[in-house]
């Protein structure tokens, strides 16, 4: 997943205004207390940040990938 796709999903799943606020304001324990925006700025992979954000917000797997998107493969570790 590219960062561009992350932001497309934010807009689609949460709505543009609310989504931007969630990404900026929600502190995520799984990301060390950082916001999703901070984690992206720090170089975290967008797919990881997206999954953590969706888990935190209670977005079920079928809804988190939006309409017509496929879940990208997990990053190699």
Descriptive account of the structure:
The protein is mainly α and 77 residues long. It has one domain (3-64). Helices cover 57% and strands 0% of the residues. It has five helices and no strands. The chain has helices spanning 3-14, 16-25, 36-41, 46-57, 61-64. The longest helix has 12 residues, at 3-14. The chain is globular, with a radius of gyration of 11 Å. The two termini are 15 Å apart. The model has no long low-confidence stretch (mean pLDDT 89). It comes from Bifidobacterium leontopitheci. It holds the Pfam family DUF3046. InterPro entries: DUF3046. This is Cytosolic protein.
Secondary-structure-based class equals mainly alpha
Helical amount: 55-70%
Q: Biggest sheet: strands, sense, closure?
A: none
Q: Using the CA coordinates, give the radius of gyration.
A: 11 Å
Question: What's the number of domains?
Answer: 1
Poorly predicted regions are none
Number of DSSP helices?
Answer: 5
- As a percent range, the share of strand residues is under 5%
Overall shape: globular
Order of helices and strands: HHHHH
Number of strands: 0
CA-to-CA gap between the ends?
A: 15 Å
Mean pLDDT across the residues is: 89
Protein name: Cytosolic protein
InterPro entries: DUF3046
Pfam family, one: DUF3046
